[in-house]
Amino acid sequence: TAHLDEHRTLPESARARDLGAELSLVREYSGRVVYELLQNALDRSRNTIHVRWRPDARVLEVTNDHWPVTAHDAPPRSDLHALLSLHSSTKQASESIGNKGVGFRSVFAAGREVEVWSRDADGEWWGVRMVHPAEQQPGPDTVWVEDRVASFYAPRHLAHPPEGVPDDCVTLVRL
């Protein structure tokens, strides 16, 4: 909620800028989807990464076995907050492969939606769904001049845990 509240206070010019920037990144990173998802998984894995293509559902899943995506503020910000922002990352250049906060947008070159799932400290799943910026619209209780917004402006909370995930999985990205 705080994330959406933050974006509600922005002027229309800032929202238009963010939408244009995200659409540009989707084009620029087109063709790098698997590479970017593997980079992210490698940065968060200990021993195991699973990459699974489910042709019947046309779904790609990438999982890792170690670091969860943090959802609550952790200094200086949570992983989720960084994911829902452009040019923001919680990763350090000396400790990770990707750290510029832009590569994840490549997922929209391959699909219209992406789900990010992670386990909390109690092992329970939580998740968010983001929609391609060309199709994302503000929620019903949000009135903006522009009817399209960047994907990270209005993520949708996912209520039911993902099915068929390997037992050693801590984080799942599904598109």
How many helical elements?
Answer: 4
Regions with little confidence, pLDDT below 50 for 5+ residues: none
User: What sort of overall outline do the alpha carbons produce when their principal axes are compared?
Assistant: globular
Beta-strand portion reads 15-25%
* Terminus-to-terminus distance: 24 Å
What is the spatial order of strands in the main beta sheet? 1-2-6-3-4-5
Structural class: alpha+beta
What's the gist of this structure?
By secondary structure, the protein is α+β, with helices and mostly antiparallel strands.
Structure description:
The protein has four helices and six strands, in the order H-H-H-E-E-H-E-E-E-E. Helices cover 23% and strands 19% of the residues. The mean pLDDT is 76. It has helices at residues 2-8, 12-28, 33-44, 79-83; strands at 49-54, 59-64, 113-119, 125-131, 156-158, 171-174. It has a six-stranded antiparallel β-sheet, with helices on one face. The chain is α+β, with helices and mostly antiparallel strands and 175 residues long. The two termini are 24 Å apart. Strand 1 and strand 2 form a beta hairpin.
Secondary structure elements and pairings:
Blueprint: H1 2-8, H2 12-28, H3 33-44, E1 49-54, E2 59-64, H4 79-83, E3 113-119, E4 125-131, E5 156-158, E6 171-174
Antiparallel strand pairs: 1-2, 2-6, 3-4, 3-6, 4-5
